[in-house]
Design a protein that fits this description.
The chain is of the alpha/beta class and about 500 residues long. Helices cover about 40% and strands about 15% of the residues. It contains 15 helices and 14 strands. The strands form three sheets. An eight-stranded mixed beta sheet has the order 3-10-9-8-7-4-5-6, sandwiched between helices. Strands 11-12-14-13 form a four-stranded antiparallel beta sheet, covered by helices on one side. Helix 7 crosses helix 12 and helix 13 packs parallel to helix 15. The longest helix is centred in the last third of the chain and has 28 residues. The termini are far apart. The relative contact order is 0.11.
Length: about 500
């Protein structure tokens, strides 16, 4: 049976006059167990520690422990550790924790939430479930060089000066900021310096900083449609009015954008989420011209830009900007692993001080240890090698998906090839509903995401988002076959009805 190895000091209620010391301690400990603050299996402090903490004799503490053991609340022997019983007396199960403590229940909360608190909604970005075909937005975690990462971590900790324990500037660890700025300049065509680069916990924090800096309740924000729901949730929580703008094959339709009263526009030009298209150069230039006329800022989320399989690399929109209109952000979550929670944002130089101020009063800075390890991972060339390796792996998996889909899904689902990223889109034929398809696929152990989850209103066609990066070729083949069976099962009633007609 697993036990807690240690415990903290106990904060017990004050002793009331007239009550014997052992009785007070017995009732206080019993109450802590009753309301769940001392959980089943947790270890109690040693009797010597409790007697010293509360100025009691050790015999008094032993007497209280003995009574609790006799009633079934504690188990173990004095000297070898005393624990809260795994199986508590039946009477415990009949007591309401709220009633026992006199604490108000959740539905009796009398406080008043601020408008932000009322607008904020849970963004369920993390889901702990088995990785299978075709879970999107996830890299091949099993191929990440974890031993190398652990080795670099150990090296840093052995060499780290004492001042490293103090933290770093709110903008981030300087060597990492410089390494990221160099990488973005050379690989993404971003015009930036380390002074303009801030290390964030990911694109979500970058969005939150921008919303705090630039959006007041009632301001209008434009977004692609379909688009990343996490961005919309940040803007809506800030009180902004979100205006959704349709896409075509070249990207967001600039001619459908409002001509005034837009504070910010959110786009994913390098690899549109979730459609996977790349914004054309002409459309990028038109968007920058629109931003200048409208006095609007552009938030460029350079989503999945590292993994390009076809076509020439397209420089970031920010690299074309000459007027300081673009806020550029990216993340290492998909390139390395999601739990790292590190990303970056590049802001025009005049805004760096304001971003620093916001960071200083929110999360201060990301973990210095993680930042330092990532810097070494980049500086020693491991990052570039990992990206090259994974680009090859993902290109092979995309090819496998397209080949299997051509052989098995023809007439059922038309999967488009993508130039970059970790997922693609499949378009459903007539008589197929994307939500029903997703449910039928899930029953066969396949994850697909309806495009409607990212869309305001209806798209001309129904479709699915399919991830291919996180699973091997064998799982891709199984997934295609299972998805084909799910689609065929849904089509059978339609075929029977058409024959009757």
């Amino acid at each position: 049976m697993t036990r807690d190895a240690s415990t903290f000091e106990l904060a017990l209620p004050e002793r009331q006059g007239g009550s014997p010391a052992w009785r007070w301690l017995y009732e206080a400990l019993r109450q802590e167990i009753l309301v769940g603050r001392l959980k089943s299996g947790s270890r109690l402090p040693a009797t010597r520690d409790l007697s010293r903490q509360y100025g009691l004799s050790r015999g008094t503490v032993v007497s209280a422990f003995d009574q609790l053991k006799a009633e079934g609340y504690l188990e173990g022997q004095v000297g070898s550790g005393t624990y809260v019983s795994r199986t508590l007396p039946d009477t415990l199960l009949q007591v309401s924790p709220a009633a026992a403590t006199g604490m108000p229940s959740a539905n009796r909360f009398r406080g008043k939430l601020a408008s932000y608190g009322r607008r904020a909604k849970l963004f369920s970005g993390y889901e702990s479930r088995p990785t299978r075909a075709f879970r999107p937005n996830l890299p091949a975690l099993d191929l990440f060089p974890m031993e190398l990462w652990a080795q670099i971590t150990g090296q840093f900790l052995r060499r780290a000066p004492t001042r490293a324990l103090m933290g770093c500037d709110p903008m981030g660890y300087w060597p990492l900021r410089k390494a990221v700025a160099d990488y973005l300049s050379s690989s993404r065509g971003v015009r930036c310096s380390a002074e303009q680069t801030v290390i964030v916990s990911g694109a979500q924090e970058a969005l939150d900083i921008v919303a705090r800096l630039f959006l007041d309740p009632g301001d209008r924000v434009c977004m692609e449609n379909p688009s990343y729901t996490g961005a919309a949730m940040v803007f809506e929580a800030s009180g902004a009015r979100v205006h959704h703008v349709p896409l075509d094959q070249d990207g967001i339709m600039v001619n459908r954008l409002p001509q005034r009263d837009v504070r910010l526009i959110y786009v994913t030009p390098g690899h549109q989420f979730p459609m996977g298209t790349t914004m054309s150069l002409a459309r990028r230039l038109a968007l920058l011209e629109w931003a200048e006329r409208s006095h609007a800022l552009i938030f460029e989320d350079d989503y999945d830009s590292e993994y390009r399989y076809a076509g020439r690399p397209v420089p970031a929109l920010q690299g074309l900007d000459r007027r300081g209109s673009v806020l550029y952000a990216g993340t290492f979550s998909k390139v390395l692993f999601p739990a790292l929670r590190l990303g970056y944002m590049v802001v025009p130089e005049p805004l760096a001080e304001r971003v620093q101020a916001v960071k200083s009063i929110t999360n201060r800075h990301a973990s210095l240890l993680d930042q330092a390890v990532l810097h070494a991972f980049i500086a020693e060339g491991h990052f570039a090698r990992h990206v090259r390796r994974m680009r090859s792996v993902y290109a092979e998996r995309l090819g496998m998906l397209l080949n299997e889909a051509h052989n098995r899904l023809e007439g059922l689902l038309t999967i488009t090839g993508v130039e970059a990223g970790l997922q693609t889109v499949g378009w459903l034929g007539v008589n197929l509903d994307e939500d029903l398809v997703a449910a039928a696929a899930a029953k066969r152990g396949v994850d697909v995401t309806p495009l409607s989850h990212y869309t305001q209103g209806k798209l001309p066609r129904q479709g699915l988002q399919l991830g291919f990066a996180a699973v091997n070729n064998r799982e891709i083949k199984r997934g295609v076959e299972s998805l084909a069976q799910a689609l065929e099962g849904l089509l059978k009633p339609h075929r029977r009805d058409s024959k009757k007609g």
